[in-house]
Amino acid sequence: MAMILNICRVLALVVLSQTYFIHAAEVVHLYGGANDSVYLGCLNCIETDASSIWNEFGSYGSNLSQTSIWNDLGNYGGNLKSYSPFNDLASSPPKIVDDQGGFYGYLTTNDTKTNRAIFDLAQFIYLFWENIQDDVSSYYDLITQEPLNKYGYVNGMYIFAQDANQQYLGFITSNVYEAQSIVNPYGSYGSIYSTTSIYNTFSTYGSKYSSYSAYYPYATTPPIIYSYNSTTKLYTAQYYLTKNIYKTPYIDPDMLKFVLLQNFNIDWSIPSPIYSHINDLIIQKSPQTGIEIRGDALSYDIGINKSAALIICNIRGQIFHRADISKNRTGTYNLSGLPTGFYLIALELDGNKKLVKKYVRR
Q: What is this structure's pTM?
């Protein structure tokens, strides 16, 4: 019994997907709310997966869903809710765990939170969550499909607008202290308040509606990135800086900013967990026993074992059902009465053999 309870407390729940970002080493999930009991989606599953936070039509990716971190009016999104990743003061943000019980930290913009996740995918979400919630699919494409090598090519280049004055819009460098750097938050070209910054959403060059803006997705005259030859003293156009993917060749302004802030060192993979309970999990399976789950119907067979107990518990170790089934070699149990959530269903046999199934109640 103690072993089963230990499993209940530490094992990450149902394997919702076996498909994930190409560079990811492990599927990881978000759990939030009171006692981390609410499933909030798979952090690195592909966008077509029903459990992915990148599925804009799914329960965890839609900005209208109550279980989505992209819903700024829900309990788990926006910058005001205590359970949101984007509340800079949140003490109970979502935790990141894998299917084996590994803990990867908390997804939170609260930089004082102990064990805050700081891997690149988390950092990208922190920086652009407000943009992502408005266009989840496009930002998924940016993460998974945008080739990063070309962003290194523009280091040391210059940005000019295509307006009548060919307004200078800054220097491309990862040095946040460089006065002309587009990532200097206090500079004329990096400040969100400067009229010459592409990151000022109210300026000609940062508005979502200006033809001269890097952020207008239909811009015909977005800013241009130029290289400079110190010998010939000539500028040469290299890329459009734009969200308009049909202006080729182009550089995405959000990805450029992120690459610069990470000093051109991007790794989308999920790192090793902070800690893992995988070594605590020792399950001895007996070929003479079985648990089958079809829909909400559970059936079991204890085989030749003399004693057996059926135990159903959730991620917190809370037991919802325990019954001695030693006298019933086979039987069924209706799972439809369980609250929505994720469960471990364990068959404890002869006191030392355990068979465990994972189950999600939607």
A: 0.71
How wide is the angle at C-alpha 128 spanned by C-alphas 123 and 132, nearest 5°? 120
CATH number of 283-361: 2.60.40.3080
User: Domain limits of the chain?
Assistant: 2-145, 149-265, 283-361
| Per-residue pLDDT tens over the stretch 55-81 | 999 999 999 999 999 999 999 999 999
Q: What is the pLDDT of residues 97-116, one digit of tens each?
A: 987 778 999 999 999 999 99
Distance between CA atoms of residues 304 and 288, nearest Å = 7
Say how far apart CA 297 and CA 280 lie, in whole Å: 29
Rounded to whole angstroms, the Cα distance separating 96 from 12 reads: 10
Inter-residue contact 158 to 150 (CB < 8 Å): no
CA 291 to chain centre: 33
Question: What is the helix (H) or strand (E) element at residue 254, kind and residue range?
Answer: helix 253-261
